[in-house]
Design goal:
Length: 199
Protein backbone atom coordinates (compact mmCIF):
# COMPACT_ATOMS: atom_id res chain seq x y z
CA UNK A 1 0.00 0.00 0.00
CA UNK A 2 1.35 3.40 -1.01
CA UNK A 3 1.18 6.51 1.09
CA UNK A 4 1.10 10.02 -0.35
CA UNK A 5 4.79 10.35 0.51
CA UNK A 6 5.57 7.43 -1.84
CA UNK A 7 3.89 9.00 -4.85
CA UNK A 8 6.72 11.34 -5.75
CA UNK A 9 10.24 10.07 -5.35
CA UNK A 10 13.54 10.83 -7.04
CA UNK A 11 15.36 8.15 -8.98
CA UNK A 12 18.92 8.59 -10.13
CA UNK A 13 19.76 7.42 -13.65
CA UNK A 14 22.83 8.08 -15.73
CA UNK A 15 22.39 9.98 -18.98
CA UNK A 16 23.29 6.79 -20.85
CA UNK A 17 20.59 4.75 -19.07
CA UNK A 18 18.01 7.47 -19.63
CA UNK A 19 18.82 7.62 -23.35
CA UNK A 20 18.72 3.83 -23.64
CA UNK A 21 15.23 3.91 -22.12
CA UNK A 22 14.23 6.56 -24.66
CA UNK A 23 15.57 4.49 -27.55
CA UNK A 24 13.69 1.48 -26.17
CA UNK A 25 10.53 3.65 -26.33
CA UNK A 26 9.78 3.33 -22.63
CA UNK A 27 8.62 6.96 -22.37
CA UNK A 28 5.75 8.75 -24.04
CA UNK A 29 5.29 12.44 -24.85
CA UNK A 30 1.75 13.66 -24.11
CA UNK A 31 0.20 15.76 -26.85
CA UNK A 32 -0.16 18.75 -24.52
CA UNK A 33 3.64 19.22 -24.40
CA UNK A 34 4.93 22.22 -26.33
CA UNK A 35 7.22 21.94 -29.37
CA UNK A 36 10.98 21.89 -29.02
CA UNK A 37 12.13 25.51 -28.88
CA UNK A 38 15.80 25.27 -27.94
CA UNK A 39 18.37 26.87 -30.20
CA UNK A 40 22.00 25.89 -30.85
CA UNK A 41 23.21 28.08 -27.98
CA UNK A 42 20.95 26.27 -25.48
CA UNK A 43 22.22 22.89 -26.68
CA UNK A 44 25.84 23.94 -26.27
CA UNK A 45 25.19 25.37 -22.81
CA UNK A 46 23.56 22.12 -21.67
CA UNK A 47 26.60 20.13 -22.82
CA UNK A 48 28.91 22.67 -21.21
CA UNK A 49 27.13 21.99 -17.92
CA UNK A 50 27.61 18.25 -18.42
CA UNK A 51 31.27 18.84 -19.32
CA UNK A 52 31.74 20.76 -16.06
CA UNK A 53 29.77 18.19 -14.02
CA UNK A 54 27.06 20.70 -13.15
CA UNK A 55 23.63 19.32 -12.21
CA UNK A 56 21.17 19.26 -15.11
CA UNK A 57 18.02 19.58 -13.09
CA UNK A 58 15.36 16.95 -12.81
CA UNK A 59 13.24 15.40 -15.52
CA UNK A 60 9.71 14.71 -14.34
CA UNK A 61 8.30 11.35 -15.41
CA UNK A 62 4.70 10.51 -14.59
CA UNK A 63 4.05 6.78 -14.17
CA UNK A 64 0.39 6.02 -14.67
CA UNK A 65 -1.99 3.24 -15.62
CA UNK A 66 -3.89 5.83 -17.68
CA UNK A 67 -3.24 5.85 -21.40
CA UNK A 68 -3.17 9.40 -22.76
CA UNK A 69 -3.26 10.39 -26.39
CA UNK A 70 0.40 10.37 -27.24
CA UNK A 71 1.75 10.93 -30.72
CA UNK A 72 4.71 13.22 -30.14
CA UNK A 73 8.20 12.29 -31.30
CA UNK A 74 11.55 12.79 -29.64
CA UNK A 75 14.21 13.64 -32.17
CA UNK A 76 12.32 11.89 -34.94
CA UNK A 77 11.71 8.72 -32.94
CA UNK A 78 8.05 7.83 -33.37
CA UNK A 79 6.46 6.28 -30.32
CA UNK A 80 3.96 3.58 -31.18
CA UNK A 81 0.34 4.67 -30.80
CA UNK A 82 -0.77 1.06 -30.35
CA UNK A 83 1.53 0.54 -27.37
CA UNK A 84 -0.30 -1.21 -24.52
CA UNK A 85 0.97 -1.61 -21.01
CA UNK A 86 -0.19 -1.75 -17.43
CA UNK A 87 1.97 1.29 -16.75
CA UNK A 88 2.78 4.24 -18.99
CA UNK A 89 5.60 6.70 -18.42
CA UNK A 90 5.04 10.26 -19.63
CA UNK A 91 7.67 13.00 -19.77
CA UNK A 92 5.97 15.97 -18.11
CA UNK A 93 8.99 18.22 -17.59
CA UNK A 94 12.34 18.04 -19.34
CA UNK A 95 11.35 17.51 -22.97
CA UNK A 96 13.78 20.18 -24.21
CA UNK A 97 16.72 18.63 -22.33
CA UNK A 98 15.63 15.14 -23.34
CA UNK A 99 15.47 16.04 -27.02
CA UNK A 100 18.82 17.83 -26.79
CA UNK A 101 20.56 14.88 -25.15
CA UNK A 102 19.13 12.34 -27.56
CA UNK A 103 19.64 14.22 -30.82
CA UNK A 104 23.07 15.61 -29.88
CA UNK A 105 24.36 12.06 -29.69
CA UNK A 106 22.19 10.05 -32.04
CA UNK A 107 21.19 12.69 -34.56
CA UNK A 108 17.62 12.82 -35.75
CA UNK A 109 15.16 15.48 -36.75
CA UNK A 110 13.83 18.48 -34.91
CA UNK A 111 10.27 19.48 -35.79
CA UNK A 112 10.15 22.63 -37.94
CA UNK A 113 13.96 22.44 -38.43
CA UNK A 114 14.09 19.69 -41.06
CA UNK A 115 17.39 20.87 -42.64
CA UNK A 116 19.24 21.07 -39.34
CA UNK A 117 21.55 18.24 -38.24
CA UNK A 118 21.44 18.24 -34.41
CA UNK A 119 24.48 15.94 -34.03
CA UNK A 120 26.99 17.65 -31.74
CA UNK A 121 30.79 17.47 -31.95
CA UNK A 122 33.45 18.21 -29.36
CA UNK A 123 36.83 19.76 -30.15
CA UNK A 124 39.40 18.25 -27.78
CA UNK A 125 41.89 21.01 -28.55
CA UNK A 126 39.85 23.79 -26.94
CA UNK A 127 41.47 24.35 -23.57
CA UNK A 128 39.48 24.40 -20.38
CA UNK A 129 40.93 27.10 -18.16
CA UNK A 130 38.78 27.12 -15.04
CA UNK A 131 35.34 26.23 -13.78
CA UNK A 132 34.11 29.82 -14.25
CA UNK A 133 35.07 29.77 -17.94
CA UNK A 134 31.77 30.68 -19.59
CA UNK A 135 32.90 31.26 -23.16
CA UNK A 136 35.02 28.35 -24.41
CA UNK A 137 31.97 26.10 -24.86
CA UNK A 138 31.06 27.99 -28.05
CA UNK A 139 34.29 26.69 -29.62
CA UNK A 140 34.40 23.32 -27.82
CA UNK A 141 30.93 22.15 -28.88
CA UNK A 142 30.13 22.49 -32.57
CA UNK A 143 27.51 21.48 -35.11
CA UNK A 144 28.49 20.19 -38.53
CA UNK A 145 27.70 23.50 -40.26
CA UNK A 146 30.36 25.09 -38.02
CA UNK A 147 32.95 22.45 -39.07
CA UNK A 148 32.27 21.73 -42.74
CA UNK A 149 34.51 23.89 -44.93
CA UNK A 150 32.67 22.96 -48.15
CA UNK A 151 35.88 21.63 -49.78
CA UNK A 152 37.92 24.64 -48.72
CA UNK A 153 35.30 27.22 -49.70
CA UNK A 154 34.61 28.32 -46.12
CA UNK A 155 38.02 29.42 -44.85
CA UNK A 156 36.76 30.09 -41.30
CA UNK A 157 36.00 26.36 -40.94
CA UNK A 158 39.20 24.97 -42.49
CA UNK A 159 41.05 24.52 -39.18
CA UNK A 160 38.08 22.79 -37.59
CA UNK A 161 37.63 20.50 -40.60
CA UNK A 162 41.34 19.57 -40.39
CA UNK A 163 40.98 18.72 -36.66
CA UNK A 164 37.93 16.64 -37.54
CA UNK A 165 39.95 14.70 -40.13
CA UNK A 166 42.69 14.21 -37.50
CA UNK A 167 40.01 12.93 -35.07
CA UNK A 168 40.73 15.71 -32.60
CA UNK A 169 37.20 16.99 -33.18
CA UNK A 170 34.69 14.13 -32.96
CA UNK A 171 30.98 13.56 -32.59
CA UNK A 172 29.56 12.74 -29.18
CA UNK A 173 28.22 9.54 -30.71
CA UNK A 174 31.74 8.47 -31.71
CA UNK A 175 32.83 8.91 -28.10
CA UNK A 176 30.10 6.51 -26.99
CA UNK A 177 30.58 4.03 -29.85
CA UNK A 178 34.38 4.06 -30.14
CA UNK A 179 36.02 5.42 -26.97
CA UNK A 180 39.00 3.07 -27.30
CA UNK A 181 39.63 4.14 -30.90
CA UNK A 182 39.45 7.82 -29.95
CA UNK A 183 41.83 7.26 -27.04
CA UNK A 184 44.18 5.29 -29.31
CA UNK A 185 44.17 8.13 -31.85
CA UNK A 186 44.99 10.71 -29.18
CA UNK A 187 47.84 8.51 -27.97
CA UNK A 188 49.13 8.01 -31.53
CA UNK A 189 49.20 11.79 -32.05
CA UNK A 190 51.19 12.41 -28.88
CA UNK A 191 48.30 13.27 -26.55
CA UNK A 192 48.15 9.95 -24.67
CA UNK A 193 49.34 11.24 -21.32
CA UNK A 194 46.30 11.14 -19.01
CA UNK A 195 47.35 14.54 -17.64
CA UNK A 196 46.94 16.01 -21.12
CA UNK A 197 43.81 18.20 -21.33
CA UNK A 198 42.75 16.45 -24.56
CA UNK A 199 42.44 13.18 -22.65
Amino acid sequence: MFTYADRIKPDGHSITTYLENLLAKRYQIPTFQRDVVWEKENVKKLWDSIYKFYPLGSILIWKSSTKLESHRQIGGIKFADDFHSNEYQYILDGQQRTTTLLTSIYGGKIEKKENFDPTLYIDFTVEFTEITDDTSYTKRFLFWDEIDDNNGQIKANSGKKKRHEEKLLVSLRDIIKNPVEIERNLHKNGYGDFENPYM
